[in-house]
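Note to self: keep these together.
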Amino acid sequence: MSTKKYHVTLTPAEREQLKEIIRKGKQAAAKIRRAHLLLAADEAEGGLKMTDEQIKRTYHVSLRTIERLRQRFVEEGFEVALQAKSSGGPQVIKIDGEVEAHVIALRLGPVPEGRNRWTMRLLAEKMVELKYVDSISYESVRQVLKKMNLSLTSGSAG
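Structure:
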């Protein structure tokens, strides 16, 4: 008796579509991998009917990856299971001209007491401390400085 909660049963048309994706090889690698995994997990008549352990060894994926793909197939459908999972929507862009001006002004201003120079993290922390932004990563600070052709080592554009 199978202990799997979600069972993949492909229609002949779905099976052909997956084979076509693999044959052409023009899709994203992850989509081709999902096509292989779905074909391997197919329990329908004419399917490969591989066990999760066989799929794991054959395609070098974790059991959890196989379980999640089975679940997406059953709960959300064939097309959704083939697609990459959404990362949750567009990122909010926090860096506008005003924020850039504050970063640059801080960078070109005096170094905090007890410090020899500004660091990306120190600039990010100071931006939050002065309430110019709610939060900002040091990577965002780096990108602003790079855009303005400023470094952390020179006092002016460099």
